[in-house]
Amino acid sequence: MTEFVQLLTPEGERVEHPDYDYRGGPDQIRSLYRDMVLVRRFDTEATALQRHGELGIWAPLVGQEAAQVGAGRALRAQDHVFPTYREHGVAWCRGVDPLQLLSLFRGIDYGSWDPVETGFQLYTLVIGAQTLHAVGYAMGVQRDGAVGTGDHGRDTAVVAHFGDGATSQGDVNEAFVFAASYQAPVVFFCQNNQYAISEPLERQSRIPLYRRAEGFGFPGVQVDGNDVLATQAVMQTALDRARDGGGPTLVEAYTYRMGAHTTTDDPTRYRLSDEVEHWKLKDPLARVEAYLRRNGFASDDYFAELTAEADALGERIRAGVKRLAEPTAHQLFDRVYAEISDELAAQRDGYDAYLATFEGAAS
Amino acid sequence: MITLAKALNAGLRKAMENDSKVVLMGEDIGRLGGVFRITDGLQKDFGEDRVVDTPLAESGIVGSAVGLALRGYRPVVEIQFDGFVYPAYDQIVNQVAKMHFRTGGKLSMPMVIRIPFAGGIGAVEHHSESPEAQFAHTPGLKVVACSNPVDAYWMIQQAIAEPDPVIFLEPKRLYHSDKAELDPGVPPVPLFSSRVVRPGEDLTVLAYGPTVKTALTAAAAAEREGTSLEVIDLRTLSPLDLAPVFASVRRTGRAVVVHEAHVSFGVGAEVAARITEECFHSLEAPVLRVGGFDTPYPPARAEEHFLPDLDRLLDAVDRSVAW
Hints:
The complex is a heterodimer of chains A (about 375) and B (about 325).
Chain A: H1 26-51, H2 65-73, E1 80-82, H3 88-93, H4 98-106, H5 115-118, H6 129-143, E2 158-163, H7 170-182, E3 186-192, E4 195-196, E5 199-200, H8 201-204, H9 212-216, E6 220-224, H10 228-243, E7 249-254, H11 273-280, H12 284-294, H13 300-323, H14 329-334, H15 342-356
Parallel strand pairs in A: 1-2, 2-3, 3-7, 6-7
Antiparallel strand pairs in A: 4-5
Helix pairs in contact in A: 1-2, 1-12, 1-13, 2-10, 6-7
Chain B: E1 2-3, H1 4-18, E2 22-26, H2 42-46, E3 51-53, H3 58-70, E4 74-78, H4 89-96, H5 99-102, E5 112-117, H6 132-136, E6 142-145, H7 149-161, E7 166-171, E8 179-180, E9 195-198, E10 203-207, H8 211-225, E11 229-233, E12 236-238, H9 243-252, E13 255-262, H10 267-279, E14 288-292, H11 303-306, H12 310-321
Helix pairs in contact in B: 1-7, 3-4, 8-12
């Protein structure tokens, strides 16, 4: 795969690209690195918490930190994100508390963060369904006159996240059609992590995914999804294009799911350890660390402090997950409609009365 | 005097005038005015941003309407024919219906999905279906069916004003037939209420959508035979408004439910169960159901066998009375 945009090699060398450039300095790169380190730590803790029985399931993002942090950090406050269920790195960039993600995977709720405040919608588990929501939201942005005004604080882009498997879904293809038809300010960000659970990319597509865009009538770009600088640069361009009224872009972030699909998955049944070892050499964090160290942009102290910060985050997560409040039965009934129906109120009251029949039940 | 189609058009127009966030979406609803002309003239008056001709993809329409609603709009989606709602079924059941619940009540989904439903128009396959039970079975959705022009005018506006998603069923074979006097000065009844449309003494007939007319015709015929039928237009299928039904059945002791949808697991089954639970001691006969058979909707020349008509309804009335 030599087609993709790359600005930082796996060895940590900055390279030029004719169309894309990362303009941030060492401060910004350290900041991106920090996000990736903390997100990886959070992800590792979550996997461990699942193994300890504290979470029902976890969908690890390990390996995809650069794709997600690169995409997340390219956003402006007014932009709006429609994630899959693995967008922990983007959630982090949007200010969603990791404990709120754990709350979902613990089985307490379906997502407790505020989608309006964070500009980050709830996780969507039906594959690809959220891409249409993103396009509709972008159509609303157009109707609000928040595209192409030249006002940086107003012009808004929407990001639809999905994976390689989702590109086979009808909804994703319909989202491409609608977005092209209305020139909606949306960026389709596909993390091609090579596997839809067990099925390799070849089962979904005979051509590189980004090239599908051409058939729908908008540009497609493939970026090294393990290169946080390239991902942010490519996303910035695509987002600007959307905000300026230029319409949709498909960005394929070429990456690799280093871990299992979820904690119930066993990837040894469908891929060779050789392959995983090969991708370890392209680790998204290692190349940034190499770059920072080689150029003297970060000292040992910096890395030690970051490790301490990650340790503290891990501590907070481990303690916090056990303190999350359990859901109540009343929440079931009270949130189905804006106002509870008589029928549901009767079911709720009936259940209350039933519970009250147990010995020692609170009155 | 106004037809049901024109009443819907007038109601949609009124809703669009009252709230600039109302956006209509669907196939052929703009320039053409919809295949049934329900949105006739609206794109000309409100523009292409508010009356949106969409690509031909039902899941795409409903899915993008979800996004519009999340951005603060009130999308009103037209599904061209009942049988074409199924490509959007996932978006409706998994996304539209659950959004309020899954966000812990933080977000709402004020969307109306209009579906011309039921048969009797001699149409080809997939154009005459009655899918209401599938949506009434889905928590988070509200389901209503209009049966006459006056209700159509008010109910569409009330549905659009709802904070929750509403499946709005329109009896397509009545679109251009019976006319009624519409006086916008007369206030409407609440959306989620059933209504006695003909008082009677001997038996309660429950109907909605196209079968209300069938029930009223049957009631007129039965009266000539000396049987007095009370006809209730359910109007709302989710939530059900059964208090008036229980009051009626406690008086008459007998009930027959009539709908075009397949009888098994249908709205009639639910209503019969509820009546049995609430009015057991008042019942003189089991609640009977008349409806479409448990077959796919038949070809046009056989639909008379499938559709519950006056005679099949009266046959059920006779069986109930003779119990």
